């Protein structure tokens, strides 16, 4: 997919991995719709890159439909979707307060898994109606996590949600192949996102030291560089790529 002149949507684009990817796509000539629940963050990134900010809960069908329509009205029909929206959360299955709160589990699944699927299906429905650009009509890049493979204690919901993203990548890629739409997933390891920015410098250094090489936290532009490559490389399809410095997470 030629990024220059294409329209892209980045969910979770107001910060972290999403913001870095929105900037990288814009730097290569894309018009970017920055979707985020945080209006101020979305607007800040969109203003910086000449894109459009949309406030949206990705798990809400009406809100996601409206956001895609707003991006199309402003910039044209999107051909690139980068799903970075996601939340965390940690609970023991049975803790001091009792069993894992079911509403907390459902919330993580709704945002990380159902939200990702919701954006995929709505984006694909629009993309398949467009004429191909060269060989393809569209490209989708999802965000999983190494927790999909080595979830730690307390990460049952997060691991389940990210494992679901990994698990649906290949069947969706096979489903959309007939429409010339590619689907891939990136599974990052320990990255310097807003979640980790709230930790002390000492704790961040300790986490980075767990990474075999390079022994540091990943930088969001490194995620963005891989997302850009996936968009530009037509033979990458149906794949989940770990981006983790060879780390394999321990139980805690």
Notes on the structure:
The protein has 252 residues and is an alpha/beta fold. It has one domain (7-190, 220-243): NAD(P)-binding Rossmann-like Domain (Rossmann fold, 3-Layer(aba) Sandwich). The protein contains eight helices and nine strands. It has helices spanning 16-27, 39-49, 61-75, 102-127, 156-176, 194-197, 201-209, 220-232; strands spanning 7-11, 31-36, 52-55, 80-83, 94-95, 98-99, 138-143, 181-188, 240-243. The strands form two sheets. A seven-stranded parallel sheet has the order 3-2-1-4-7-8-9, with helices on both faces. A two-stranded antiparallel sheet has the order 5-6. Helix 3 (61-75) packs parallel to helix 4 (102-127). The longest helix is centred in the middle third of the chain and has 26 residues, at 102-127. The protein is globular. The model has no long low-confidence stretch (mean pLDDT 96).
């Amino acid at each position: 997919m030629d990024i220059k002149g294409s329209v892209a949507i980045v969910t979770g684009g107001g910060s972290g991995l999403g913001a870095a990817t929105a900037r990288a796509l814009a730097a290569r000539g894309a018009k970017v719709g920055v979707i985020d629940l945080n209006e101020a963050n979305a607007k800040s990134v969109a203003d910086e890159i000449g894109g459009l900010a949309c406030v949206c809960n990705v798990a809400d069908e009406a809100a996601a439909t409206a956001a895609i329509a707003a991006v199309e009205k402003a910039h044209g029909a999107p051909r690139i979707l980068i799903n970075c929206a996601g939340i965390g959360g940690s609970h023991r299955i049975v803790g001091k307060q009792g069993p894992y709160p079911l509403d907390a589990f459902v919330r993580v699944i709704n945002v990380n898994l159902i939200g990702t699927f919701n954006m995929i299906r709505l984006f694909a429905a629009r993309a398949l109606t467009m004429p191909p650009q060269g060989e393809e009509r569209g490209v989708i890049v999802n965000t999983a996590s190494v927790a999909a493979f080595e979830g730690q204690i307390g990460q049952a919901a997060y691991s389940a949600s990210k494992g679901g993203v990994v698990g649906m990548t290949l069947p969706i890629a096979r489903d959309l192949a007939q429409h010339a739409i590619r689907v891939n997933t990136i599974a990052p390891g320990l990255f310097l996102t807003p979640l980790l920015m709230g930790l002390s410098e000492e704790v961040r250094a300790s986490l980075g030291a767990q990474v075999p090489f390079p022994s540091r936290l990943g930088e969001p532009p490194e995620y963005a560089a891989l997302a850009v490559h996936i968009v530009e490389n037509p033979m990458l399809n149906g794949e989940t790529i770990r981006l983790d410095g060879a780390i394999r997470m321990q139980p805690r």
